[in-house]
Amino acid sequence: MQWTLVIPLKPLARAKSRLSDTAAEGLRPGLALAFAQDTVAAALACPAVRDVAVVTDDALAGRELSLLGARIVPEEPAGGPNTALAHGAAAVRSRRPESAVAALNADLPALRPLELARVLDAAAEFPRAFLPDAAAIGTTLLAAGPGWELLPAFGTDSRARHRASGAVELTPDAVDSVRQDVDTGDDLRAALALGVGPRTAAVAARVLSLGQ
After folding, report:
1. Strand, coil or helix: what is 35?
2. pLDDT per residue over 77-90, tens digit each?
């Protein structure tokens, strides 16, 4: 099964506020963009991914991610990640009604294409499925097969909320790169230990050197 990924991305100026313990305010937008660039590049290299739609109103992010091959969907109306994902999924299915759609976080800088393929192949066995994050509290991927609504419930305790919505929790082995999102300094260090993409590596090196 081939998937279209929908990735929500808030304005870079407001992104990654919880990284304030590691990155100064002026550096966090660059980190957020690097995370998204490495996430999109890895996603587009995944053999199970047909294409990627990024839902954002950030002009810089939209320009840079479109250069990588992502389709940019303007976020309207603005209303948080779940509104953005529902809008993005609707935009995808207005063009291809039978698309298999998966929501993916924009902050997976260690993402590996073959690990993502393993998750998507597992998700194809169910109408709706999700992958919990590394902390086992949130969600990094939510999938809906052809004919099924995505019904995103990201936010606080999204693992429990997605399970309660009827989505099947996926437990494939060796997919740490798909689970390791980055919200805090500890998350960033965990992602760096896994091995991040080139854009995140470059920006993170500058951030961490300034913090020493």
Report:
1. helix
2. 677 899 999 999 99
Q: Determine the pLDDT at residue 142.
A: 98
3-state secondary structure of 78: coil
pLDDT above 70 for 40: yes
For the chain, what are the domain ranges? 3-210
Token couple for 135:
């902390």
CA dihedral of residues 93, 32, 60, 38 (deg, nearest 10): -70
**3-state SS record for 116-174:** HHHHHHHHCCCCEEEEECCCCCCEEEEEECCCCCCCCCCCCCHHHHHHHCCCEECCCCC
Which of 5, 6, 148 has its CA nearest to residue 87? Answer: 6
Class level of CATH domain 3-210: alpha beta
For residue 189, give Cα distances in angstroms to 42, 107, 136, 161, 202.
19, 13, 18, 27, 14
**CA 66, CA 188: separation in Å to the nearest integer?**
25
